[in-house]
Amino acid sequence: AQTPVKVTVTGAAGQIGYALLFRIASGQLLGADVPVTLSLLEIPQAVKAAEGTAMELDDCAFPLLSGIEVTDDPNVAFNGANVALLVGARPRSKGMERGDLLQANGGIFGPQGKAINDNAADDIRVLVVGNPANTNALIAQQHAPDVPAERFTAMTRLDHNRALSQLAAKLQVPVTEIKKMTIWGNHSATQYPDLFHAEVGGKIAAELVDETWLRDTFIPTVAKRGAAIIEARGASSAASAANAAIDHVFDWVNGTAWTSAAIPSDGSYGVPEGLISSFPVASRDGKWEIIQGLEIDAFSRERIDATVRELEEERSAVRELGLI
Ligand code: NAX
Question: Which residues are catalytic?
């Protein structure tokens, strides 16, 4: 039998954790023939709740789930980990400045990066979901010098899926008709969902919608969808975020011709090297590759530059705080 893949989930007792763990255990993260062991990392106050979730996982008797551990020690949680989903983060509370937020998250993602460096399996793949996701991924990566830099990624797949859904509704086509969607930059309100390379039935999506809708409805609706969900549900996106995390890792491991993921920049498209920024990517042989050769017009250039500028500012801020 195949050796189980160890998947570590941080923030396991949170709402995304609850939506994520059962799908991982049922085989949706890696494939229906891949056994998994789960490691649930939480802060001490939430270990008991995570143990409750572990009991429910037991009660599903998932054929692919070969073990579960619950811990508050990152060195235990990441020991031998093959996939790490870093979901737990410090949310912004009222009156919190950006510096305080980055500082608080540096205190989480720095030590977790080091624990990954010291304990994870050689093939470790890391997806950061906890916000500010791109910069948290950068912090973790910078504390893991022995892990190849490209194994640290951040999630923009939820934004990507939101963009597919909005465009499909507008054009009254199934989402499967839409190809080559791209989210550029930061997982934040500055992100740029790009319809100039997206295709619907072989036609460029931007040519099938009017410019006003693209600029004044589509882009802000995708970028602010998280806030709209909070407004409607009274809680932030959870099942859709878990779904996107599943999509990201499944495609990373199993391959895809085109999606969006925040990965370390190699300087492509004028994005400064090292920033963890969302790009159009393919996955081949278990590695993300930035799709090259796209023409970027002035409209897109301005928006890519703005979101990348925000990432540079976040990087400067965490440098000044001594977090990387
Ligand atoms: P919850 O507050 O429900 O859960 C977070 C959990 O993390 C809590 O159980 C907490 O105890 C735990 N935690 C905190 N510090 C920890 C640490 N050092 N080690 C281990 N666990 C720790 O939040 P939830 O709704 O699950 O969201 C989690 C994160 O995802 C947030 O940062 C949120 O902003 C982010 N999101 C990111 C999205 C994306 O597209 N990249 C979309 C959804 C979501 O908003």
Answer: 187
